[in-house]
From TrEMBL:
It is found in: Cell membrane. It is a multi-pass membrane protein. PANTHER family: ABC TRANSPORTER ATP-BINDING PROTEIN, CONSERVED COMPONENT OF ABC TRANSPORTER FOR NATURAL AMINO ACIDS-RELATED. It comes from Oryzicola mucosus. Residues 368-598 form the ABC transporter domain. This is ATP-binding cassette domain-containing protein. InterPro entries: AAA+_ATPase, ABC_AA/LPS_Transport, ABC_transp_permease, ABC_transporter-like_ATP-bd, LivM-like, P-loop_NTPase. The chain crosses the membrane at residues 30-47, 53-78, 85-107, 113-129, 136-157, 177-203, 234-251, 311-335. One of its GO terms (molecular function) is branched-chain amino acid transmembrane transporter activity. Keywords: ATP-binding, Cell membrane, Membrane, Nucleotide-binding, Transmembrane, Transmembrane helix, Transport.
Length: 601
């Protein structure tokens, strides 16, 4: 059944609304993986306990807590984009804190848990601080050093840690079999493992998870949505350390002993490669990774003790060679590619703006006031003493030949670039010293020359991050029916399959959803067909007339500019050579020759 929506100008057919139910938080693949993953953990825990196989009970408990640590390693690596080779130190710190508290000072296990998690968080903070400054392999090296130093520290502080002798703690009560042979420890490991698998599936679908992925994939896009990438990284380290700490505190009761040798670099490498080999971002990935990298060499091939590192390396090498997206990632990819790809239907521009909305702002105020702005890159003067203003509720075209400074100007307007001189006021507030995310909070939205539709997020998530960044609790200004229809359509699409032109439009829709009053659009119509351009001009007019938005748009298509702009500013070599209503600027003799160049740019 389809419904008719009146947009004022058109009657268009919309898909049936999914507003009441909405799409499920997990996609089908994630749901299946969670069910299989938890079922594997339950069977692997219950069967050895029921049969009284004490060796296997210990092996499974240990593998389960390694899975938990790897899940949180995955959160750090996949959701937050942080390369940490020191995750074993976080795990070890939690384990050792329990060992010292319970084994040397006689505290109860619940108190030991508190010490363990606190120790993990302290190491997490130590990792998070460099992560605020350095990224990727630089951060990898910092955390790698921490992982190498950690066992040395345990030796160095032997009066506190018992040094080489380690700490023996039997934790008999926790290991005593109860119903169907399950010990409290096995139940704790199983519950923690199941929660970790569930977390790995749900976290990317939460608002925090989406914001973390945006910050990791495109710090500029994140800042333009008011997100602080540094804060996201810090939060990721804290969450990962908390989860890993919970896994680490179960290590001493599982093994009955802690010693520095248990927390060498290889445990960090195990957690890292378990994520890569199993499949980044796949809920079942860490189970597959730990099975291949821990269970196979250490348990199934235990007799070939001297060949274990070789098996370890060989498995990792072969999986990476044959399945670059990891075992589970490879299987999911293979199954997805077998399905018929869904094409993205054309977006109906006339549907986007809620027809019931009316302009909120008086036209005529100044929204953006620029005075004597200058920006220099080395020898290049990108912005040369620019003074101009943008009235509230107007569509302002910014044109000029390639390299004339249009994008540089937008970058200063939304806080990406600090100017060298001059002032910019947005709604009367000086913004030249503000960060991009603070400018975003003032209601300035931004799209990019290369649209930031991120493959790290699902197709719908790429739009939803606009709703996440909403500045006010008011209902969205985009037609709810359109949002529902878009969610329905994008929910079934892979992000890679969205065509280039539609990506730009999705980015525009995303920024409208943030409630921004001022939109800075960088070549939003590039790649659109002539018909789409006409419709897009209608959308810009709707945004102005029905929502009262102020729009500054950079555009090479001068026909589009003429069709839609109230006023236009022309830049040449960073300087304003004409500004005013379209007709007068078009007739300006300094501008006319430039337009021939721009038309052919
Ligand atoms: N980060 C940077 N470092 C060095 N030079 C830069 C930087 N950003 C811009 N420039 C230079 O500043 C000048 C203006 O560039 P800008 O991208 O603002 O021009 P534009 O009008 O947006 O061009 P186009 O239409 O091709 O996008 C160019 O000479 C460019 O090379």
């Amino acid at each position: 059944m389809t419904s008719k929506i009146s947009t004022g100008e058109h009657m268009i057919a919309a898909r049936p609304s999914t507003a009441r139910t909405g799409p499920s938080i997990l996609d089908r693949s994630a749901k299946i993986q969670v069910v299989i993953g938890i079922a594997i953990l339950v069977v692997a825990t219950v069967v050895p306990s029921a049969l009284g196989l004490s060796y296997w009970i210990g092996v499974i408990n240990l593998a389960t807590i390694y899975i938990v640590a790897s899940v949180f390693m995955g959160l750090l690596l996949v959701d937050a984009g942080q390369v940490s080779f020191g995750h074993g130190a976080v795990f070890g710190a939690a384990a050792y804190a329990v060992g010292v508290a319970c084994g040397m000072h006689g505290f109860s296990f619940p108190v030991g848990i508190l010490f363990g998690v606190a120790a993990a968080l302290v190491i997490g903070i130590l990792f998070a601080l460099p992560a605020l400054r350095v990224q990727w392999f630089y951060l990898g090296f910092v955390t790698l050093s921490a992982a190498m130093v950690f066992p040395q520290m345990l030796f160095a502080f032997d009066s506190l840690t018992n040094g080489l002798n380690g700490i023996s703690i039997p934790f008999t009560a926790l290991n005593t079999p109860t119903a169907i042979g399950l010990s409290i420890l096995s139940i704790l490991s199983l519950v923690l493992g199941s929660l970790a698998i569930l977390t790995s599936a749900i976290f990317p679908k939460t608002k925090l998870g989406r914001r973390m992925r945006v910050a990791a994939a495109s710090p500029e896009a994140a800042q333009s949505l008011g997100i602080s990438p540094g804060r996201m990284r810090f939060t990721a380290f804290m969450i990962a350390s908390f989860g890993t700490g919970l896994a680490g505190v179960l290590y001493p009761p599982t093994v009955g002993f802690v010693s520095p040798n248990a927390f060498h670099l290889d445990i960090s490498i195990l957690f890292f490669f378990a994520v890569i080999v199993g499949g980044k971002g796949q809920p079942l990935g860490t189970i597959a990774g730990i099975t291949l990298l821990y269970m196979l060499p250490n348990v199934f091939l235990a007799q070939l003790v001297e060949y274990r590192p070789l098996v370890y390396g060989l498995v990792a090498f072969l999986v990476m060679l044959l399945m670059p997206s990891g075992i589970i990632g490879g299987i999911v990819r293979w199954l997805t590619l077998r399905q018929k790809p869904q094409a993205m239907p054309a977006l109906q521009f006339s549907q986007i703006v809620d027809a019931t909305q009316s302009a909120k702002h008086p036209v005529g105020d100044i929204a953006i006031e620029i005075e004597g702005l200058r920006k220099v890159f080395g020898n290049v003067v990108a912005i040369n003493n620019v003074s101009m203003n943008v009235r509230r509720g107007e569509i302002h075209g910014l044109v000029g030949a390639n390299g004339s400074g249009k994008t540089s100007l937008l970058n200063v307007l939304n806080g990406f670039t600090n100017s060298d001189a001059g002032s910019v006021k947005v709604n009367g507030k000086e913004i030249t010293s503000l960060k991009a995310r603070d400018v975003a909070h003032l209601g300035v939205g931004r799209t990019f020359q290369t649209p930031r539709i991120l493959e790290q997020l699902g197709a719908w998530d790429n739009v939803q991050i606009g709703l996440d960044a909403k500045l006010s609790p008011n209902p969205t200004r985009v037609s709810p029916a359109f949002v529902d229809s878009l969610r329905d359509t994008l929910g079934r699409l892979r992000t890679e399959s969205i065509p280039h032109g539609q990506r730009r439009l999705l980015e525009v829709i995303r920024v409208i959803l943030t409630d921004a009053d001022i939109l800075l659009l960088d070549e939003p119509a590039a790649g659109l067909s002539p018909e789409e351009r006409v419709a897009f001009a209608g959308l810009l007019r709707d945004l102005r007339d029905k929502l009262g938005l102020t729009i500054v748009f950079v555009e090479h298509d001068l026909d589009l500019v003429a069709r839609v702009a109230d006023r236009v500013t022309v830049l040449e070599s960073g300087a304003v050579i004409a500004s005013g209503d379209v007709a007068s600027v078009w007739e300006n003799p300094r501008v006319k020759p430039l337009f021939v160049t721009v038309r052919h740019a």
